[in-house]
Amino acid sequence: MSEETIDTVKAPRKIFFYVQHLLGIGHLVRASRIAEALHAAGMDVTLVTGGNAIEGFPGQNVRHVQLPAVLSSSTGFSGLIDEKGRRVDDRFEARRTALLIEAFHEAAPDAVLIEAFPFGRRQMRFELLPLLEAIRQASPRPLLYSSVRDILQENRKAGRDRETADLVANHFDGVLMHGDPQFVRLEDTFPLASDIAGKVHYTGLVAPVTPEPSADRFDVVVSAGGGAVGAALVEAALDARDILSDDKSWCLIAGPNMPAEQFDRLSARAGENVALVRFRTDFPSLLMNAELSISQAGYNTVCDLLRAPCACVLVPFASGGETEQTVRAQKLADRGFAEVVGEAQLSGETLAAAIDKVRQRPSRPPMSILMDGAQTTAAIIERQLEEREPARA
After folding, report:
1. What is the pLDDT of residues 365-390, one digit of tens each?
2. Considering just the CA atoms, what is the radius of gyration of the chain in Å?
3. What domains are defined for the chain?
4. Does pLDDT of 281 surpass 90?
5. Contact 289, 139 (CB under 8 A)
6. Per-residue b/e over 353-385, b at no fewer than 16 CB within 10 Å?
7. Which of 109, 131, 190, 347 gives 16 a disulfide partner, CB atoms 3.0 to 4.6 angstroms apart?
8. What's the pTM?
């Protein structure tokens, strides 16, 4: 290879991607899909995770750095615990921070993505603020992006939105909004969106490709997300099945984080034509065969539902003052996409009524929503890196 040819060969862009899942697994799933798209675009990706290990995530094509795991101590995200249920202390935080900064320097990235922060994950400021400072001091300084879902959690404390907008203005090169502005815009759930409008890029939803139908077929698929707070949904589904005297085949996916005692209690109730499992890696493929899906309204679950032809009943997670899933579910209900049962109203009776109502509908209306968010994210980052570093002659 000639010296001229060597000069024109570009090294792969290096991406450093931080994601912290605390209760469910949605953040990790979305980040893993984006990381895979970055890799497919020819980038060298380091994905740093800080939650409990989940089989199959991230994928095999990224470098994975696992920090000592932390979890939420409650559904309200009011505190952090380690994998053994112990409160996270200053010493633990200092160790994690040091490992994160070490991983950043070792990766020497061209661009950094931080999932959720500063719009969410305030609990992780102990390590993310030092990371922002390390990025600021790096030479050359990498581009920095906030990678956020389409709908933000409502801030209930004064000053939080101002703090978020200031962090974006002072540290971040862009905000990657993983949604379709024709469905929901940043200003719908973030009052100071106009202050950072010049940095916002809508990518479309980070959805998987349309899957092939699973070899297994169930008429009704019930999913409880990560499962940490899903027992009530699974129990209500079993009650609704009894009320309806439903003889169709049901698959209830409890989630990998459902406590063992809850899973065992629900297993004892599963009767004929009912399969209760913790996790199905082919969940999107199961939906392709199903007549009905009953689920929460998390980002990734809704992405899967938008790809599938089945009818939908949504029970949005709302514990601890969470608003995101309720907003998403209502927007879908307004378009005739689903029936909604509020978490506070959830029972066998209310769920049975929603199932009966959705089954009487002739068909689900078509939804025109951008769903290539992972690939668009990669294209945005590549373009902005090229704009900052003009192509060599």
Report:
1. 778 899 999 999 999 999 999 998 76
2. 22
3. 3-207+371-388 (3.40.50.2000), 220-359 (3.40.50.2000)
4. no
5. no
6. bbbeebeeeeebeeeebbbebbbbbbebbbebb
7. 109
8. 0.87
